[in-house]
User: Fold Methionine adenosyltransferase 2 subunit beta from Myripristis murdjan.
Amino acid sequence: MPGSQFSVLQEDVCVPSRRVLVTGATGLLGRAVCREFQNSGWWVVGTGYRRARPRLLRCDLLDEDAVRTLVHDYKPDVIVHCAAERRPDVVERHTEAAVNLNVHATATLAKEAAGSGVFFLYISTDYVFDGRNPPYGEDDSPNPLNLYGRSKLEGERETLRHCPGAAVLRVPVLYGEVEFVAESAVTALWPRVQEGAAESCTLDHCLQRFPTDARDVAAVCRKLSERGIQDRSIRGIFHFSAKERMSKYEMAVAMAQAFNLPSSHLIPLTEQPAGSAVRPVNSELNCSRLELLGLSVEPRPFRAAITDCLWPFLPDKRWRQTVFH
Ligand SMILES: NC(=O)c1ccc[n+]([C@@H]2O[C@H](COP(=O)([O-])OP(=O)(O)OC[C@H]3O[C@@H](n4cnc5c(N)ncnc54)[C@H](OP(=O)(O)O)[C@@H]3O)[C@@H](O)[C@H]2O)c1
Assistant:
């Protein structure tokens, strides 16, 4: 029985006919993708690596034989490939390991998907663009500024080379239901917001970002997959992004306002910090292809969605009780 050598995330008594394999299921986006497909009646198998827990498969995607066995045994209709090294500064420091995961493991999965007739969905990033001429359409020329963006672009190319029927979904910076606040570059701002008036804190006000809730991306992944397994013209590159443009400084101020906290200690910084990987100034994505196909979702407003994601990290339980219960 497919998947029998592994524990599965969900196996209904009446096994649904559609199966999805989600890589990176222990990560921010992968968790949301698993939940979204489960809630829509798919049979879901999620893989993780260091954080794989009893209900997820542990599979090192750098192990080609393990990847082949996984796809062969499980026989999914769809693979949503979320696993990646997505921290630009880590990619600069550990480039070989990151390229192995972001490029070579992607190529292995894409080959297996093509060989098995699986709809392959590769998650990519707005960092494939240099940010000098936004907004970017799917056909605009990428020109990544850092090694992370380059590795993800290579991952896209390997995907489409080995699996021409695949889809690539580019998304901007993500936040969502995090296990710890540092898990997303957006929720990572929360401790600095909470510092309050005690200490002033400089935050980037130079790079324009479009913080997007992972739950919205997950819904787009499901819609793309459901259409993709029926309609083989659903292939190539797609963009999805929330519409609110914000610097990190503006995100932090919005968080402070949402929780009625002071924000006067937050100081906008208008130069990129030295010593970290160069990021695009504004890599806004034009998302019209998805919208025209009816495969988009209305992005959650930032203020409401970030409140949702941060409330488990509120130290003041009385506030939580007053506002949410
Ligand atoms: N987060 C963002 O702001 C953002 C923005 C744009 C695009 N993206 C893209 O969205 C996708 C998902 O990102 P994310 O934020 O969800 O990433 P994440 O939270 O950092 O999760 C990364 C996942 O990759 C898995 N992984 C790492 N090494 C592995 C290996 N050798 N074998 C198998 N799995 C391995 C991790 O498993 P363990 O933790 O269990 O080891 C984890 O599940 C990525 O493709 C990323 O490039 C993310």
Notes: The mean pLDDT is 91. The first strand starts at residue 19 and ends at 23. Residues 24, 26-30, 48-52, 59-62, 82-84, 86, 101, 123, 125, 152, 171, 173-174, 184-185 surround NAP (CB under 6 Å). The chain is about 35% helix and 15% strand.
